[in-house]
């Protein structure tokens, strides 16, 4: 016997009802069904009484297999009865992937109700286990957030995945706290290679010469030189005042030395800038004008007027880079990270207030003054003055730390202070677990996204067990900093006032 169109729609409705708790929600669902069917049921007095709870049993004659004496489609608030009803409906070809207007599916309803038996039946009936709602949620994320281990494993066995979005990330973070360490570890296996690999240094990309000239022309400050060199070149003046102890580093446009003052016998870091590159001017201006307790201070500047090598002499930090500290320790504790970022946010608040974008926040550019993480933020040749309302369009930054808006096409590229918040969010993630949220090593068959695609899509996770014991407020702060929309990304002020940053802590726990 063939089912009429009306009967087929009733089967869909009954399948919905079998998985959804008995509530007014039924009417919302019914109104999404094909025209005619919902109104036919809503006009039915017995059906209205059943919705109100006045009738415990609903019999819908006309469905194949429903006899006059032994109806097979009786619904009772009882799981065994629901299993029987679902089995009958599936046997007669009910649509297992039907959704309401928000994309909420039969499977999602069964997960919400904890109906393991119905979920297994739906999977056997070919339900789409990865289907997402209009809000980009899915059944596995819901089960993981709710701590429903048996259901989550059942869905994962059927091929369900956690979506690479904010909801999926939250599921990865909250699942372990609800006893689902194994399932989250299984779902986050793509991160497995990263913790075992030592954090790697990252080189930044400089703007082109044309872009540097444009940036320099937009900064209308005058350079201030601390030496009147007249007949002496800068190299000879530097050698008279300082003794080079050893090389520290060499970049694209500068070499850094550890030097000692011949007068004060104090050690400093000195940069020898190669001449004739426009980005030098930005850094020299920044070194000269930006004075803050958490920004590296320039002690002296030796240069002449012929664009020969320049020697800014900088204060020396005792403990080196945050990068080396992370590599040595594996990661930072929450109190250590909180200390570092309270100071970093303070430095960024000052920079942004002065109209400067740092453009290259990363562990290599954060220096430690002593054992208790007191920091100094390094200047970089990428620092850009935009004023309080300006933007920048240069393609500059370090790939792993760069914000999505910097990766936009050159004709569309326009960014400002939020890029520093994004980069700081990447650093905070690394501090708390020891490896980066975005990496080319995460590319796989299951997650075929390059580094750039991961950043542009905000595709990152909090894999177990590395994040199992990190405070949820820290994850919330990272989520707010790694927001792909710069207009709603946290500002530095919001970061400073976030609950995780304002938590109390003691230095004793850090020293131990």
From TrEMBL:
ANK repeat coordinates: 102-134
One MF annotation (Gene Ontology) recorded for this entry: ATP binding
This protein's record includes keyword Nucleotide-binding: yes
Alphabetical list of Pfam families matching this protein: Ank_2, NPHP3_N, Pkinase
Keywords: ANK repeat, ATP-binding, Nucleotide-binding, Repeat
SMART domains hit by this protein: ANK, S_TKc
Record domain Protein kinase: where: 242-501
Protein name: Protein kinase domain-containing protein
């Amino acid at each position: 016997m063939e089912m009429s169109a009306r009967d087929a729609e009733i089967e869909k409705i009954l399948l919905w009802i079998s998985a959804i708790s008995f509530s007014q929600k039924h009417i919302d669902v019914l109104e999404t069904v094909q025209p005619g069917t919902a109104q036919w049921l809503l006009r039915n007095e017995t059906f209205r009484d059943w919705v109100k709870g006045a009738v415990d049993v609903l019999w819908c004659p006309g469905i194949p297999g429903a006899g006059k004496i032994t109806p097979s489609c009786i619904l009772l608030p009882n799981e065994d009865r629901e299993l029987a009803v679902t089995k009958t409906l599936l046997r007669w070809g009910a649509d297992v992937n039907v959704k309401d207007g928000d994309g909420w599916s039969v499977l999602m309803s069964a997960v919400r109700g904890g109906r393991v038996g119905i979920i297994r039946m739906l999977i056997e009936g070919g339900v789409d286990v990865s289907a997402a709602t209009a809000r980009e949620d899915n059944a596995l994320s819901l089960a993981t957030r709710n701590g429903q281990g048996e259901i989550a494993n059942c869905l994962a066995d059927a091929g369900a995945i956690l979506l690479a979005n904010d909801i999926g990330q939250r599921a990865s973070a909250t699942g372990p706290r609800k006893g689902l360490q194994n399932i989250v570890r299984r779902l986050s296996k793509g991160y497995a290679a990263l913790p075992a690999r030592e954090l790697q240094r990252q080189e930044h990309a400089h703007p082109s010469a044309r872009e540097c000239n444009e940036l320099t022309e937009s900064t209308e400050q005058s350079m201030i030189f601390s030496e009147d060199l007249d007949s002496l070149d800068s190299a000879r003046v530097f050698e008279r005042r300082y003794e080079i102890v050893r090389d520290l580093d060499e970049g694209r446009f500068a070499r850094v030395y550890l030097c000692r003052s011949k007068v004060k016998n104090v050690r400093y870091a000195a940069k020898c800038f190669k001449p004739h590159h426009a980005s030098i001017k930005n850094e020299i201006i920044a070194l000269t004008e930006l004075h803050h307790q958490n920004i590296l201070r320039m002690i002296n500047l030796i240069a002449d007027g012929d664009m020969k090598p320049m020697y800014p002499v900088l204060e020396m930090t005792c403990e080196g880079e945050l990068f080396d500290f992370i590599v040595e320790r594996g990661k930072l504790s929450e109190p250590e990270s909180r200390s570092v970022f309270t100071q970093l946010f303070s430095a960024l608040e000052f920079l942004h207030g002065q109209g400067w974008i740092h453009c290259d926040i990363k562990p290599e550019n954060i220096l430690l003054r002593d054992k208790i993480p007191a920091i100094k933020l390094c200047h970089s040749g990428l620092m850009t003055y935009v004023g309080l309302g300006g933007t920048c369009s240069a393609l500059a930054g370090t790939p792993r730390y760069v914000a999505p808006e910097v990766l936009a096409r050159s004709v569309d590229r326009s960014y400002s202070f939020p890029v520093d918040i994004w980069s700081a969010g990447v650093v905070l993630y690394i501090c708390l677990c020891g490896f980066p949220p975005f990496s080319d090593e995460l590319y796989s068959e299951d997650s075929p996204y390059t580094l750039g695609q991961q950043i542009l899509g905000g595709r990152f996770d909090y894999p177990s067990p590395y994040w199992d014991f990190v405070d949820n407020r820290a994850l919330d702060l990272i989520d707010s900093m790694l927001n792909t929309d710069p207009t709603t990304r946290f500002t530095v002020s919001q970061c400073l006032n976030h609950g995780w940053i304002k938590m109390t802590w003691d230095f004793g726990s850090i020293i131990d």
